[in-house]
From TrEMBL, chains A, B:
Subunit structure: Homodimer.
Lineage of producing organism: Eukaryota, Viridiplantae, Streptophyta, Embryophyta, Tracheophyta
Catalysed reaction equations from the record: (2R,3S)-3-isopropylmalate + NAD(+) = 4-methyl-2-oxopentanoate + CO2 + NADH
GO molecular function terms noted in the UniProt entry: 3-isopropylmalate dehydrogenase activity; magnesium ion binding; NAD binding
Protein's pathway: Amino-acid biosynthesis; L-leucine biosynthesis; L-leucine from 3-methyl-2-oxobutanoate: step 3/4
Protein name: 3-isopropylmalate dehydrogenase
Cofactors demanded by this protein: Mg(2+); Mn(2+)
Length: 358, 358
């Protein structure tokens, strides 16, 4: 039987609850498929700050690097909100992405027929939405230098950041995006602000160069302001979207809210080699932490992405995805996706129901 | 009677059609209120490129600067899409904003009861939305230096831009935003990415400093990714939003699409002194240009903003706003806002109907 080492990063807020449930599901699906896991659980974010004084201890990064895949719960909370930048939980997450070199962030936004009414969009607009945002995750304005505080030539105080992309950074995310589109409906929309920004003009130029390698994929370009509109007007027009770090942050969150069920949405962050990082796209939800109210399905589906994209274990991944659909079909719902006529359950019970269907 | 000089910039696509209609409405409302206008019509954008080889001729900027207010139609079109940066119609618009020093861009997004079904959002979510985005318009990554193309320390090709804000730039847009919120429901939400970007941390710090001058306004802060979600989830939670140039570009377009009727939405761009720039938020719509299909109401409402914010002529402004509502109540609709049971009209006829109600 195959063996893999998994690093679990429960993190903050509802993170530990959803990770514990997802771990059980992962275990069962794997054992049925003859896969064996070794787990190591290490702290990140606020949990790591409280324990060690830094949001990403060296041991945590090392453990993550030496494993085959990393499953993260969530990070952040009011408690650390006023911390200085290098002591913010978020900084731990950014350093983890950087350290693992996971430059490609895949964020599916799918409207399940069972949950179409959870969207604030009209049924006919939301129904059938199935898009994937491929977000560049280790470059752009998040990491660009110079950055900081200072004074300008008139002696005025300033704050500044640099949006910068090198050719190789765009080329590699472009290839991931074209490959992703090829496995989906073969349509890729690259989002930029090339009518204003040089970084975006360069982005578009490189995307067009890489497009020559993928003549079978239909490429289009859209300005980011228009993309933010089109996601509301007609999200079904999109198949795969590729964009930079900051535009991807904004648009993937907008897309996820369009589905109406961010408690359901997983994500995968992948590098050239080395372990991938898998996490629900929702936050740490400190207001409901520890109350057994969180929806564990996004983390369970992140575990499925871990199996598929991280370990190439397609069969175990499909098993988990099918179990989640089955559980929804049986009518089980956590509070965030509850509607009249369905069965309200807590985080743990939802996990147990999924286990029954694995 | 009072006299004002107005610069008309019809621009490209549907620009000339909507400007011609709006001019008639402006004229009638003004003459009833005893106001006299002198007009000068000058080219900008693609129209200027074709005529003079540059997207903002010196004469155009000079004419605009020397007038009391500027009314712009729209700029851009496929024809100039592949132009180099300094020969893009968009560059003309950016230079105009810079030249007029109109740092404060006010973008209302209102769902009129008559048009609530035009939104892709469910009726109960869209109904009653009435928010104002105050976007910083002459700073940030749109204008920041250094910018351009080059090579990094590894000799790799790069494209780059600088997001930078000086204290005075944030302070002045903050004051406009607090004043705006004060005249509305007294709630201001500042949108940034202060968990990652130094420019945003500095933004938040200055917003909080200026907030001390406005203890009666309720201030909150929101990360831009969350704001993009919240606009879809529950747009009614917002009253006034203040944000930087690029986030404002994205969020104001998203907010406008949430209303479902971007053919209806005006904008005002204001400086410390000097003429303001007023324009519909929609684009030049080259596909329907010259076909008498465009919705002139956004430009007519921009003319109302011109009267109110640009010239302090509140009564004439109210007259136009009331005439637009009246025309909608009578059931007249252009194609973009048409629904069964209403009367489909073209751009000119819509203008004539509004004139009847002025
Ligand atoms: C927490 C924050 C730093 C992070 C980001 O901006 O990347 C989050 O919003 C995300 O999208 O994963
Ligand atoms: C045309 C373009 C340069 C402009 C901008 O990005 O500011 C437009 O999108 C707008 O919002 O007015």
């Amino acid at each position: 039987s195959k063996r893999h080492t998994i690093t679990l990063l429960p993190g903050d807020g509802i993170g530990p609850e959803v990770i514990s449930v997802a771990r059980n599901v992962l275990n069962l699906a794997a054992s049925i498929e003859g896969i064996e896991f070794k787990y190591q659980e290490v702290p990140v974010g606020g949990a790591a700050l409280d324990l060690t004084g830094v949001p990403l201890p060296e041991e945590t990064l090392l453990a993550a690097k030496q494993s085959d895949a990393v499953l993260l719960g969530a990070i952040g909370g009011y408690k650390w909100d006023k911390n200085e930048k290098h002591l913010k939980p978020e900084t731990g997450l950014l350093k983890l992405r950087e350290g693992l070199k996971v430059f490609a962030n895949l964020r599916p936004a799918t409207v399940l027929p069972q949950l179409v009414d959870a969207s604030t969009l009209k049924r006919e607009v939301a129904e059938g939405v199935d898009l994937m945002v491929v977000r560049e995750l280790t470059g752009g304005i998040y990491f660009g230098k110079p950055r900081g505080f200072g004074t300008n030539e008139n002696g005025e105080e300033i704050g500044f950041n640099t949006e910068v992309y090198a050719a190789y950074e765009i080329d590699r995310i472009a290839r991931v995006a074209f490959e992703t589109a090829r496995k989906r409906k073969g349509k890729l929309c690259s989002v930029d602000k090339a009518n204003v920004l040089e970084a975006s003009m360069f982005w578009r130029k490189r995307i067009m160069a890489i497009a020559l390698e993928y003549p079978d994929v239909e490429l289009s370009h859209m300005y980011v302001d228009n993309a933010a509109m089109q996601l509301v007007r007609d999200p079904k027009q999109f198949d795969t979207i590729v964009t930079n770090n900051i535009f991807g942050d904004i648009l993937s969150d907008e897309a996820s809210m369009i589905t109406g069920s961010i408690g359901m949405l997983p994500s995968a962050s992948l590098g050239e080699s080395g372990p991938g990082l898998f996490e629900p796209i929702h936050g740490s939800a400190p207001d409901i932490a520890g109350q057994d109210k969180a929806n564990p399905l996004a983390t369970i589906l992140s575990a499925a992405m871990l199996l598929k994209y991280g370990l190439g274990e397609e069969k175990a991944a499909k098993r988990i995805e099918a179990a989640v659909l089955d559980t929804l079909n049986k009518g089980f719902r956590t509070g965030d996706i509850y509607s009249a006529g369905t069965k309200l359950v807590g985080c743990k019970e939802m996990g147990e129901e999924v286990l029954k269907s694995v």
